[in-house]
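Batch job 17 of 40 flagged for manual review because the log was empty.
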Amino acid sequence: MINWISMVGYIAALLVGTTFYMKSMIHLRCFAIASNVCFMIYAYFHSPQLYPVLILHAFLLPLNINRLWELRKQAPGNKSLLVKNEWSRNYLRPAYHYFDIGINSHR
């Protein structure tokens, strides 16, 4: 029989796997936050050998919360972040300058 600690670990793994199927950044961040919490619980109660997993998800949890907060703040009434299969370039525009690799530049 599976104990509750192992069940939390399986749920955490399922949540992480589910994030790869998300088409909405808001839903992805919500599932990532839930998986961070589950992995932290699992790592804390399972064994001291899993403390690196606890540390990783303790670092990722505030990051995911912050990114979710930024999503909500940037587009408070923008339903396109929730609609499936819609890619909002206006939402991504602030991040474009981070990825400027000069594709369109002719050297």
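Reviewer: the log was empty due to a logging misconfiguration, but the result itself is present. The helical segments are 4-19, 25-46, 51-74, 89-92. Unflagging and moving on to job 18.
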